[in-house]
Each structure stands twice: as structure tokens, then as C-alpha cells.
Amino acid sequence: MPESPAASTPYEVLGVAATVSDEELRRAYRRRLRVTHPDVGGSAVEFQAVQTAWERIGTPQNRAAYDGHRFADAEPHPTRTAGAGGRSGAGGGASGRATQSSGPKARMHGHPGGIARQHYLTLIKEWSGRGTTLADPYAPQLIRSAPREIRHTLAKALAEESTAQLISSLGIGYTAWHDVEAGHKGDKLDHVVLGPAGLFAIMSEDWGGPVELKRGELVGESLAGAKPIDALEDSARAFSRALRVKFTALIVVLPDAALNDVYTLPARGRRPILVVVPRSRLVGVLREGMLGMSRGSFEKVFELRSTLQNGIRLLD
């Protein structure tokens, strides 16, 4: 599976810059081993992470191979033609890529991952310094040396592109809008998907590490205090009020490696059911729904499509 740009690099695990000498790297490895060893009160998970990091960059050959490796699908792909009335379609994805089919694709509107791509390019140029010319903003060494919050914006773009690729495989009975304006302050919904199972608001994310659901919110070291479920609910609520529609479910889709299971939060008041799924389960949820979701009728889907097509605003 391709490496997530948001994941901790071996250099970060060892606590050194990517520019250190081989001898400095060796000293850092030995120091981290002593600190993280379970016999001296360290964490077994951190101890294993240190060993894995050393395996990846501990020799000059391995280090050169790691430093020269390009993140799979980090560079943008040409977009495909959108469905009727739409703009650019889905780009390629890093993981969870759908199998190509010769059958009709879902109607796709907007540019998945486009806003996140623009944000990444702005941040990486600002971080590189005024007057610096970046020959390749997706060069692997540049990505790995950037702060984690910048790498996360690229990981999010890749996640949105992967989700869009899966949605496009659902068939002509589905319509999807990407980078949708959700209300005020530039808030957005990554994807709005309409199909036989209902209307879904989807957030695509990749924080580069595992997460779990606790007390109604996703938590994990890689989230750095972010509250994604709160953000998704706020955006979905603003969208629903503006267009006077009701979502069947809210979905957070993450890389398979980030989740041990599917998490659900039952509907409460006007808030629809919320589901957190690994990417490999997304297509099944969009096709079949889940326990607690109310399935719409064909007539309702047809009416909703017209309402959404007339009311949705796509962000540039």
C-alpha cells in the first residue's frame, strides 16, 4: 500500500532531520532504543516503530532508496469529463482504487481534492520561502521534509480523489458532487452523493495514523486535537438548511489501516446516523446502506437530484 504523506517519517520517529549524517542517524537510533525500550518504562509500540524506522533508513542503500521513492499518485492526474451539467470529474486515487469497468459511470460534478491540492501548493511554496522556485512540488524529499500539517493537506487531497474514484464506479444510478459549498466561512463538504440508498454527506480523510471513536468524536495522536465529526456535522447542517434537504447518513471514510472496525453513531434529533468506515467498505454502504438508515424511493431520488442540481454550489 502506498505510504501516506501524513504518516510519520522514519526521520521523525528517530527524532532527527532528514539531512543528518549517517553517523548522527545511528546515534539517534541507539538513543531512541534506550528511551523506548519496555524494560526501562518505554512503550512497546514506540520501540517497534523505532526498529521499523531503522530498517527503512538504517543503511546507506536503504536510506537512498527511501529518499528517492515517490509517493504513489501524489502528482495530480488529468481529470475526466464530467457527467451532464457537471464540471471536471474524478481524479486517480492512492488507495482503495476501484476496478475499472466498461459500464456507465456515476454522474460526477466538481473537482475532487481540488481545494486540498490548491491548499497544499500554497503552503509548500510559502514554507519553501519567498523567491524559491520549486521545480517539482511533489518531489518525495520535499514532501518528507515539510511539516506534518502541510503533508496532511496532500494526504487529504489523495483521500478525496480515492473516494471519488470509488463513487464513480457505482454506476449511472448515482450522482456525486465534490468540493461542495456548505454555508459560511468557506466550509465545504468533500462529497455529496445521491443514489438508491439515499443522500450522503462524505468526509474523506487521512491523518497518517490510527484513530478510534470515543464519546462521539474521533481521537488519535495523528489528529492533533482536530474534531472532524463536529466539523462534518456543522457543514452538513448548514447545507441541509440552505437546500432544505435531509441526509440519510453522514460518512467519514478513512484508509483501511486507520480503523479496526466500522463505527456508528445513531441518529439523534435532526442529526442523521453517522458512520466511520474504512475505504474498502464505502461502496457497500453507499449501495446497501446500514442498519438504522431509511432507504428512499426512486421518485424521491429523482426529485432530490433536481433540487441538488439547482441548489448546489461548487467551490473553485
Automatic annotation (TrEMBL):
Cited InterPro entries: Diphthamide-biosynth_chaperone (IPR052276), DnaJ_domain (IPR001623), J_dom_sf (IPR036869), NERD (IPR011528)
Question: Mind telling me which PANTHER family this protein's record contains?
Answer: DNAJ DOMAIN (PROKARYOTIC HEAT SHOCK PROTEIN)-RELATED, J DOMAIN-CONTAINING PROTEIN
Pfam families (alphabetical): DnaJ (PF00226), NERD (PF08378)
| Official protein name in the record | J domain-containing protein
Region Disordered: start-end pairs: 74-111
Q: Where is the composition biased (Gly residues)?
A: 83-95
Q: Which Gene3D superfamilies does the record associate with it?
A: DnaJ domain (1.10.287.110)
Domain J, by residue range, is 9-70
